[in-house]
Amino acid sequence: MTADNADKLLRLENVTRAYVQGEQTVQALRNVSFTAGRGEFIAVAGPSGSGKTTLLNVCAGLDRPTEGKVWLGSRDLSELSRQQLARLRLEEIGFIFQAFNLIPVLSAEENAEFILLLRGVPDQERRSKVRDLLKEVGLEGLERRRPGQLSGGQQQRVAVARAIAAEPKLVLADEPTANLDTETALSLLNLMERLNQEHGTTFLFSTHDPRVMERAHRIIRLVDGRIESDLPVTQNNRKDPRHAG
Amino acid sequence: MRILVIIAWRNLWRNPRRTLLTAGTVALGLGLLLLFLGIGDGSHMAMIQNAVRLGGAHVGVQARGYQERGGLERVLSQHEIEQVSSWLAAEAPALGVESVLPRVFASGLASSADGATGVRVIGLDPGREASGSFFDDKVTRGQFLTPKDHNTSVIGDGVARKLRLEPGEKFVLMAQAANSAEIESLLLRVSGVMRTGLEDFDQATVLVPLATAQQLLNLEGQVHQVAIMLNGLDRATHVAERGRLRLPPAVEVLDWSALMPELRDFIRIDDGGSYVFNGLFFLIIAFMVANTLLMSVLERRREFALLDALGFSPRRRFLLVILEASWIAALSVVIGTFLGYAGHLYFHHKGLPLDWFYSSEVSAAGAVIDPIIYSQLSWTRIFGAAGLVFGLTFLLSLLPAWRGAKAEDVHLLGQL
What is the nearest CA distance from A160 to chain B, expressed in angstroms? Predict the structure, then answer.
């Protein structure tokens, strides 16, 4: 890693991801390159099928590029084993999915503390942290409920609590507000924004929700797997239709 | 690790009916296995006891070479008998010795006015045999020999039938004397007729007092075997080893399995067949468990993808499935052992009547099979069977566990 890249948390270099479907090859990502610095709050926008989810999966090491390189800090993800990638996600990445994705046999509290448990954080510290977080996301009193006993919005808030409980360097969120009502979506965005500002956590989230894009500091627009634009959002251009999606 | 154990346990109860059916199948299999083993071991023990108590021994002391080659002259001398006596006098209580029975064996010819038949003569001490063997219990007509008897005999009911003899009647027993070319003969009175259930034995056995046999065979003060009866079959090997250490090399000390190799081999073959049958039976059950586990993993592909995304390493996912299988195995072992042990206790006390299956007396490899089999189940068997269940479940969970560990279904995470 060069000195220029020292404060870059995430770096993609000419990433291409192609899938073979029957006799056809689908190019989900084509020569995607960008860097994300520490503390950035980036939205990846684009229509359905533009490659947003694939991009996030590649960034997390859940999917491997057909060509190109992905760097997280100083590590080239292509050189890591599956075991090492899992370790990396556990230590440094928080994931929020569109489909909530909680572990059904664990309670809200256990789901939220899952990463901390795997990291071996002591009981008392873990419990108190998770209780505070659940309170913060408005789930006080629901700690013992299983995912099946929570609404979609409540489940997503548990997922957010799980993603941020371990204070990861990078949070990847795949359309985090897609299945939420406006009020819940806004409170989730407020929470993400606050974490970004207070802890310097880098957020990279895919969306085509204008409410979310409005809050982003930078928008990377994908079309057919290519970066069409990568622009910072300033106070002046927040209302610019190009940034509103 | 704790979270793995918790998730594995709770995963089992997401589909309680499937878990209970799977665990129930394995438990039933284990219960039946224990029952088969108990009945099998019970019948083998009874066969050994019957063989030991009907002319055999837990441990036999003989002149070296007698087991392999026999021979009327291959006897224990008076001095050697004394050495055996002094060894047992010193160690009998510690070794669990119940009785010591000197015996001589010979072939002879029994004849009466109605015919003649070849017989196997066993000379024995009537007083000691009464408590050490089953011969006296097998007398169906007349009575067993007494210590005061001389020139009397107990004959097998096959001999009695051939020679048309009844208690109180007389017959002539002829045999070649030791160290001589002479044929000696004695006129014997029938004291009793016995029926052991062993066809070959009953057709050709004549029991006579030891002194009478020694006189007939010219073996004054000598015997072919000192049969040692113990209060536990499992002590036999140790006692034989002890005897080999304490007695001179001119004598051989053999446990029941060496004295009765046909019976030992029959039990081995029977056990072998039973192991193959039980192994196949369990393999079928184990494949059912493996199938259930594999289905359960495949049904949860999205969940495994989620665990992967959260940093749950392949090794942990592998362990998770192994733990789920271990929980099922543990549950099955607890229930199965309970079922099997309960069945064992029933058949240990009430017995399994063989007349459910056979209408006549049954014998094999020179041993009578009791008409009622009482289950015998050792801890070794219980732990062995439980270990088999654990081992097989573990082995067959490797494939589902590997499938869970290698799952790369990231595309499923976006699905609602």
Answer: 12
Return the number of other C-beta atoms located less than 10 Å from residue A58's C-beta.
Answer: 25
For chain B, the residues whose C-beta falls within 8 A of a C-beta of chain A are 2-3, 6-7, 10-11, 14, 302-303, 306-316, 410, 413-416
| φ/ψ (deg, to 5) at B223 | -135, 165
Cβ of A91 within 8 Å of Cβ of B2? The answer is no
Q: What is the pTM of this model?
A: 0.74
Write the CB contacts of A174 (distance below 8 Å, at least 6 apart in sequence): A52, A53, A56, A95, A96, A97, A98, A205, A206, B413, B414
Mean pLDDT of chain B: 89
User: Radius of gyration (Cα) for chain B, nearest Å?
Assistant: 30
Q: What's the rounded Cα separation, in Å, for the pair B60 and B67? A: 10
pLDDT band at A182 (very low <50, low <70, confident <90, very high): confident
Q: Cβ contacts (< 8 Å) between A53 and chain B: which residues? A: 414
Instruction: Report whether B365 contacts B44 (CB < 8 A).
Output: no
Instruction: With cut-offs at 50, 70 and 90, classify the pLDDT of residue A244.
Output: very low
* Residue given tokens 């038949």 in the structure block: B117
Q: Which residues pair with A203 in a beta bridge?
A: A41, A171
Q: Which residues contact A185 (CB under 8 A, 6 or more apart)?
A: A177, A209, A211, A212
Check CB contact under 8 Å for A98 and B309: no
The predicted-structure confidence for B229-258, as pLDDT tens digits, reads as follows 998 888 999 999 999 999 999 999 999 999
Pick from A98, A105, A118: CB nearest B414 = A98
Handedness of CA A82, A83, A88, A94 (dihedral sign): positive
**Candidates A63, A87, A110; nearest CB to B313:** A87
Mean pLDDT (whole number) for B93-119: 92
Find which of A53, A118, A151, A174 to mutate to test the B interface (most B CBs within 10 Å of its CB). A118
| HSE-CB of B405 using CA atoms within 13 angstroms | 17
Task: Note the ipTM here.
Answer: 0.81
B34/B38 Cα distance (integer angstroms) = 6
Q: Do B416 and A179 touch (CB under 8 A)?
A: yes
- C-alpha span between B65 and B58 (Å, rounded): 18
- Under 8 Å between Cβ of A109 and A143: yes
